[in-house]
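Protocol step 4 of 6: structure prediction from sequence.
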Amino acid sequence: MRSLFRTLNAYPAAKLSRPLVAIAAALFFVNEAHAGDVKASTAKETPQSMVEALHTAFGKHHARAVHTKGTMLEGTFTPAPEARSIVKTPVFGGGTVPVVARFSLFAGLPDLPDNADAASPAGFAAKIKAADGDEFDIETNQHNNFIVATFDEFAVFLRALAASGPTAPHPTAVEKFLEKNPKAAQFLASRTYPISYAQATYFGVNSLKFTNAEGKSVFIRYRVVPRAGEHYLTPEERKAESATYLQDDLLKRVAKEPIIFDWFAQVAEAGDAIEDPSIAWPESRKLVKLGTFTLTKPPADPEAAQKSLLFLPGQPHVGVEAADPMLVLRNAAYPISFSERQ
């Protein structure tokens, strides 16, 4: 199955058909949902229905179904020596390799202003191009948990959002959802908005299982920390910013000097929620450094790069596998969205 998705990711975008992607996604969903420590999914939603739920909330367009508006940078990834203590994947044992990163706003709206409420949580994704030809993808959000625990709940939220337009009577569908789901309401109320993509910390909300060369396994979540430090805006400051302030700032910064992030694995302890991304792990949990991203320039053709880039954050690797069923489903849904933007 891994080779199927590696082939899919390398296939020329112009020749990639929706049926091919849908078949690959369905095969991945059926097989990988039963792999490793991930329990067979009991989700009612399918990868296809989740993509359609995103379209219901944000509209259908030939772009990403969510985290639609974004900015890409290229650079390098350098692994940290301590990474090998918890994971045996070759990318963590070699030297510096190329990386492509994408910063994005949350909502599935191509023209969303950077200062809009729906811009948060912002996202950071990276594709590491290992020397052995493997591609190691990560996706993280600028919030230390997810709005709900399951794929099914997220689809319900998205459909409620779609039914809660300006003319909808109160309480709207989304107001009813938030009343029944106080953790989701707390998530929305606690969102922050960075002064720069380069000054936000990003969190991998879905758990993975890491295994080292000695066969010892741990459950982890990613954390990506900016060398420039964190800086978040007040509501008044955010509203005063321009509709492209995050993109503009990022390109200005990288033209002057590299933008650097350190990548960590937060290691779970007994009792931590492995399969519930809506619950953040305690800050007392150990952080193991995985490496450093050094971003130095935008792609030569940003539009073409955006269109051809597919992230598969649940892709298995030697010593790495998904531990949260939501991550397996995400990995199957993304190729469907990818095919729609070709």
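Step 5 (inspection) to follow. Residues 325-340 form the longest helix (16 residues).
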